Automatic annotation (TrEMBL):
Organism ancestry: Bacteria, Bacillati, Bacillota, Clostridia, Eubacteriales
Catalytic activity: L-aspartyl-tRNA(Asn) + L-glutamine + ATP + H2O = L-asparaginyl-tRNA(Asn) + L-glutamate + ADP + phosphate + 2 H(+); L-glutamyl-tRNA(Gln) + L-glutamine + ATP + H2O = L-glutaminyl-tRNA(Gln) + L-glutamate + ADP + phosphate + H(+)
This protein's record includes keyword ATP-binding: yes
Subunit (UniProt): Heterotrimer of A, B and C subunits.
Record's protein name: Aspartyl/glutamyl-tRNA(Asn/Gln) amidotransferase subunit B
Function: Allows the formation of correctly charged Asn-tRNA(Asn) or Gln-tRNA(Gln) through the transamidation of misacylated Asp-tRNA(Asn) or Glu-tRNA(Gln) in organisms which lack either or both of asparaginyl-tRNA or glutaminyl-tRNA synthetases. The reaction takes place in the presence of glutamine and ATP through an activated phospho-Asp-tRNA(Asn) or phospho-Glu-tRNA(Gln).
C-alpha cells in the first residue's frame, strides 16, 4: 500500500427540488406507483418536445454559486447518445460542452487538516428512468423492470477534480457537499430516495509519479460510509492486480454491500457518446443582474455558521462542526439558543442525548416530537436545580417520543429535585446515624467513603436529591462532627 497512491474523483448527481420535471409538467413526487408520473415528453415518444423549467436554472445557479463556481451566462444543452433500457429516447439531454457552473472548489477537513478539492463543473441534465431488479441488485437478478417516473427529473451533476486520495477524504467531501446543498434548499439530498447519488472514479499510481493510472467507475453506493468502503476496497483490489503483474481494466463496477466488494458490470474502455448540441432547445442566457439576485438569496452557509458558533458563542470547533453538519440540527440549535443563552449546554444535549435518540430510533430530527422551546425549558429547570441531569435524561426521552413539556412530565412522574436544605438536612442526619463505619472511615482520611454516604442519601430520596447540594451539606456536617 505504501508504494501506491490512490487518486479519486467523484461525480455526484443531485436531484433538484422542483415540483415538476426538467422539460415537462409531470410531478417529481417520490414513491408513487411505477410509471404513473409520465407523459410523451419524459417517455421520449416521437414528436414530443419539452420546455425548460426555469426553476431548474435558478437552483443550478444557486448551487454553483454556493460551491464557489463561475456561472456561465450563455449555455446550452447537448445530446449524449447511448442505449440503455431506462433511457427511452436513446440519448440523454445534458450539458456536455458548456456547463452552467464551472471552476469551483470545496474545502474539507480530514484528521485536523484542511484540504481544497477543486470542482471541474456542475451541469444540468435529465435523470433516466430506474431499473427495478428482481433480485435486489443487477448482479443477482433474473430480470429487471423499468420505472419511468424518474425519467426527466432535473439533476445537476457535480464533478470534482481527481484530487482526493482516500475513502475518508471522499466521505468528508460528500458530507460537506450535502450540508451545503441542503442548507441552500436546492435538494432534499436523501441518498435512500436516490436524490443524491455518487459515482467514484478510482485509480492508483506509484508514489511520486504524476501520470494517472487506469480508472474504474464505482456505482450503486447508497450511503457515505458505503462510498468510503467501496473506494478502500477498490484501491486494494487495483494494487493487488498490479502487484500480480496484471492490468487494471477501465470499466464500471458495482458495490456489493453484503459481500463488501466491487463487481464488474460493464467494460468502459472506449466510451463514445457521440455528443452534439440539442437542436430542439434554445440556449440559456443569464444576465449578471439575475445572477446577483440568485446570489443574494443564498442563506448563511455551513462554514460561515460554524465560524459564528465558534467566534460568537464560544463553541469548540468539534461541536460547531457536528451542529452545522445538518441543516435541521443547526436550525434546532439556533432556535434553542434564542430561549436559553448557554450555547455549550445546548450543544452537549444535542450531541449527547438528542443524537443518541435519533440514532437509536433510526429517525430524522423532523420526525422527533421534541422542540427547541421544550429543550430550552428543560435546560432552565436543570440550571435552577429543579431537576438533576440524570432525571433530565429520562425526561428528554419522553419529550422526544411524546412531545410533552418538561414541567408536565416532571409533575406526572413525581421527579422534582429536592433542594430544600431543611428536608435534606434531616435525611443526611439519618444516613450519618445509620452508617457510623463509613463516617469513621471518612474522618480517618478515606475520602472515597463519602461516595457511599451520598449514594445512601440518593437512595433514600429515590434519586431526587440535588447531588451538588447533598455533597456540600454532607461535607459540612461531617466536618462539624469530626
Amino acid at each position: 500500500m505504501n508504494r501506491y497512491e490512490a487518486v479519486i474523483g467523484l461525480e455526484v448527481h443531485v436531484e433538484l427540488k422542483t415540483d415538476t420535471k426538467l422539460f415537462c409538467g409531470c410531478s417529481t413526487e417520490f414513491g408513487k406507483e411505477p410509471n404513473t408520473q409520465v407523459c410523451p415528453v419524459c417517455l421520449g415518444l416521437p414528436g414530443a418536445v419539452g420546455v425548460l423549467n426555469k426553476k431548474v436554472v435558478e437552483l443550478a445557479t444557486k448551487a454553483g454559486l454556493a460551491l464557489n463556481c463561475a456561472i456561465g451566462t450563455y449555455t446550452w444543452f447537448d445530446r449524449k447518445n447511448y442505449y440503455y433500457p431506462d433511457l427511452p429516447k436513446g440519448f440523454q439531454i445534458s450539458q456536455v460542452f458548456r456547463p452552467i457552473a464551472y471552476q469551483g472548489h470545496l474545502d474539507i477537513d480530514v484528521n485536523g487538516a484542511t484540504k481544497r478539492v477543486n470542482i471541474t463543473r456542475a451541469h444540468i441534465e435529465e435523470d433516466p428512468g430506474k431499473l427495478v431488479h428482481s433480485g435486489g441488485s443487477i448482479t443477482t437478478s433474473r430480470y429487471s423492470c423499468v420505472d419511468y417516473n424518474r425519467s426527466g427529473m432535473p439533476l445537476i451533476e457535480i464533478v470534482s477534480e481527481p484530487e482526493m486520495h482516500s475513502g475518508e477524504e471522499a466521505k468528508a467531501y460528500l458530507e460537506k457537499l450535502k450540508a451545503i446543498l441542503e442548507c441552500i434548499g436546492v435538494s432534499d439530498v436523501k441518498m435512500e430516495q436516490g436524490s443524491l447519488r455518487c459515482d467514484a472514479n478510482v485509480s492508483v499510481r506509484p508514489v511520486g509519479t504524476t501520470t494517472l493510472g487506469t480508472k474504474t467507475e464505482i456505482k450503486n453506493m447508497n450511503s457515505f460510509r458505503s462510498v468510503q468502503y467501496a473506494i478502500e476496497y477498490e484501491v486494494e483490489r487495483q494494487i493487488d492486480v498490479l502487484e500480480d503483474g496484471g492490468r487494471v481494466i477501465q470499466e464500471t463496477r458495482g458495490w456489493d454491500e453484503n459481500r463488501g466488494i466491487t463487481v464488474s458490470m460493464r467494460n468502459k474502455e472506449n466510451p463514445d457518446y457521440r455528443c452534439f448540441i440539442e437542436p430542439e432547445l434554445t440556449p440559456i442566457e443569464l444576465t449578471e443582474e439575475w445572477i446577483e439576485e440568485v446570489k443574494a438569496s443564498i442563506p448563511e452557509l455551513p462554514d460561515a455558521r460554524r465560524k459564528r458558533l465558534v467566534e460568537e458563542h464560544g463553541l469548540p470547533e468539534y461541536d460547531a462542526g457536528v451542529i452545522t453538519s445538518s441543516l435541521a440540527l443547526a436550525e434546532f440549535f439556533d432556535a434553542t439558543l434564542k430561549e436559553f443563552p448557554d450555547a455549550k449546554s445546548i450543544s452537549n444535549w444535542i450531541m449527547g442525548e438528542l443524537l443518541r435518540l435519533l440514532n437509536a430510533r433510526n429517525m430524522e430530527l423532523s420526525e422527533a416530537k421534541i422542540t427547541p422551546s421544550s429543550l430550552a425549558a428543560l435546560l432552565k429547570l436543570i440550571e435552577k436545580g429543579s431537576i438533576s441531569n440524570k432525571m433530565a435524561k429520562e425526561v428528554v426521552e419522553i419529550m422526544f417520543d411524546e412531545g410533552k413539556e418538561p414541567d408536565q412530565i416532571i409533575k406526572e412522574k413525581g421527579m422534582s429535585q429536592i433542594s430544600d436544605e431543611g428536608q435534606l438536612a434531616q435525611i443526611i442526619a439519618e444516613v450519618i446515624a445509620k452508617n457510623p463505619k463509613s463516617v469513621a472511615d471518612y474522618q480517618a482520611g478515606k475520602k472515597q467513603a463519602i461516595g457511599f454516604l451520598v449514594g445512601q442519601i440518593m437512595k433514600a430520596t429515590k434519586g431526587r436529591a440535588n447531588p451538588g447540594l447533598v455533597n456540600t451539606m454532607l461535607r459540612d456536617k461531617l466536618a462539624e462532627e469530626a
